[in-house]
Amino acid sequence: MKTNKSLLRKSHFLGTKIRNLRKRNNLTIEDLSARCIRIDPEYAPSVSYLSMIERGKRVPSIDMLEVVAGVFQKDVDWFLDDVPEQEDITPDKGSRGGINGMALEPSFLFSNDILQIAIPEMLSQTGVTGRQFAHLLIRAHQENNQNHFPDLERAAEEVGLKRMPLGTDELMVICKQVGLTIKWFDQAPKEALDEIGVRSNNLLTSYFEPNNKLHLNRRLKQFPTRLKYELAVHIGHAILHNKDSLKTVMSVGSQQNGHPNRRIENSNSVDPQDILHAWHDFESSFFAGALLCPKVPFRQLLDQQGYEIASHKLAEVSASVAMRRMTAVSPYRHWHYFDAYSPGKLKAVYRGNGIPLPWGNMTKVDDPCQHWAVFNMINSNTTQSSAQLSIMEVNGEPKIYVCESINVRDMADNHHVLCAGIDLNPAISAQGKDAYAIANELKLACVEHGGSSNVPRAIRQDLDSVARILNINWISRAIDNQAKLICSRGNVCPRQPSCYQPNG
């Protein structure tokens, strides 16, 4: 059985098309092989050969391809490069979170060998550091799993026994149980400039070093919720990683954490150990949230309080810990979370619902949309939380987002904004309503009124019903305000007139 040479030049997407087509028809590789055997046993591919075809390791003969095409009732030409339909080669991420991915095709150009060469070059030319890239990888993993890590939840429950709230004394006892010796040190905040030019006060708050010594900044005694969080993080490091990390360092401010005795270079190289340490930091942080806010009791608290941000006071944790835990414990999976230190610096990002970013934490954005809730809040002096209903077009589909934002200050007296929100479209669809039509109608109403509009009565009823089902109070408060049209960047501003016209 020989492969036509012309087929070799036209089959770069063939394996991917077969795999995606098979999955869309809910067939296993075994199912597809069996179907092919029923059509033509002589030219039907085996399970192992099909697997290699799908991975781009083999190219089928014309006869074999005709058999596969017969299963799916397609012309042979459809499988070749001459029909490069994007949806045919882009994997469907289904209900998993995060933004829509790209098709890594042709697959031979995305092999490990090629990526190992290309990624450092890309980082070097874009100015992205290896550390930033590591955090991006971890965030993508977190978003893909929609903040669902049951093994970390179980580990925290075994230690904390699902107690809530946990007091400082109780956490100190756990520290001793896992072998940590606590030492206190004094250090004041220092002004620093981060990688994208944002100036802030940075404060080293704690660090771990060999011989099981945990060093805590004495200032933490004035901030009990922060102290509890840092103790919980270090407990997580001790339990999950056997206290093997020399980089277990925590700080506040817009800069990333770093060891007090180690200068961190903004290197474009990607060090596997740095990525591993960054992953350990993520696991320990997630563990800390699960220890302080165990899933079942915290979800019950949120249900009782209608997911109000003020619930953090009852749990005796910071607003930041509570809002991040909302995204993990809520039965509704379509959440996002931002921690913004300036109108251009997002220190913490979570996008389980795939919402685009108003700005990032790697480079400055010259035309951020000023109508995002987090942007409005960061330029405000209010200490009250604020709810906002927003409409944005994402991949050609209008989306309705609602969020709650609040101004806070960290231990170094830096002002920043916490924002937690959800994508309402899946909740609307779950009620048998046409989410696309409702979102589009709301979008058109906003365009007609210059970018903001009162929520039409019929839509208000639909959204109010969703708010009651989800049991999230700030959805109802957002409906009472005007809906706002937002965008990912000023160059795609949907407002008429645009906020970014040259004469504007």
Explain what you see:
With about 500 residues, this protein is an alpha+beta fold. The protein has 3 domains: about 5-90, 434 Repressor (Amino-terminal Domain); about 130-290, Arc Repressor Mutant, subunit A (Orthogonal Bundle), CATH 1.10.10; about 335-490, Beta-Lactamase (2-Layer Sandwich). It has 20 helices and 12 strands. It has helices at about 5-10, 15-25, 30-40, 45-55, 60-70, 85-90, 110-125, 130-145, 150-160, 170-175, 225-240, 270-290, 295-305, 310-315, 320-330, 375-380, 425-430, 435-450, 455-470, 475-480; strands spanning about 180-185, 190-195, 200-210, 215, 250, 335-340, 345-350, 385-395, 395-410, 415-425, 450-455, 485. Strands 7-6-10-9-8-12-11 form a 7-stranded mixed sheet. Strands 1, 2, 3, 4 and 5 form a 5-stranded mixed sheet that branches. The radius of gyration is 26 Å and the shape is globular.
Mean pLDDT, nearest integer?
88
Counted up, domains total: 3
The CATH topology annotation of the largest domain reads as: Arc Repressor Mutant, subunit A
Q: Give a short account of the largest sheet.
A: 7 strands, mixed
Coarse morphology: globular
The amount of helix comes to 40-55%
